[in-house]
Amino acid sequence: MLIGYTSGVFDLFHVGHLNLFKNAKSMCDKLVVGVSTDVLVGEYKDKTPLIPFADRLEIVRSIIYVDAVVPQESMDKVAMCKKVGASIMFMGDDKYNIPEWVEKEKEVNAHGIKVIYFPYTKAVSTTIISDALMKTRGWIKIIEESNDG
């Protein structure tokens, strides 16, 4: 059985996430998805997800292309692939040839895990969606008020 792995925050789930899962599932028998915990996101991003971890986990678990969901508590991709038995790791091509990911890909490959990049879905991202909502629906005020109280 060919097991594939991908991971992400999956905050404000959108069609780009769905495309990643659909493409990944077409290349493996079992697709395992790691969903970053709120703590992990706080360690490497300068913000907290808008959607709580438990909800993001349930959303991803409900996608037809996803066979299993696991909490992603660290950025150690090799450890996660080994833990779930994955021999393929799927990434968006927004990471392709970025120096940090070039090194990570070498490390992953050294453990017999192949990295496959899929085209990033243009014109859609969680950042674009959240920025638009903040501008059009006053989320900036709501977020600032919830942080004050």
Primary descriptors:
disordered C terminus; Rossmann fold; five-stranded parallel β-sheet; alpha/beta; 46% helix; 7 helices; 149 residues
Give a written overview of the molecule:
With 149 residues, the protein is α/β, with parallel strands linked by helices. It has a single domain, classed as HUPs (Rossmann fold). It has seven helices and five strands, in the order βαβααβαβαβαα. It has helices at 15-25, 38-44, 53-61, 77-84, 99-110, 126-137, 139-148, and strands at 3-8, 30-36, 68-72, 88-92, 114-118. The protein has a five-stranded parallel sheet, with helices on both faces. The longest helix is centred in the last third of the chain and has 12 residues, at 99-110. The protein is globular and about 45 Å long.
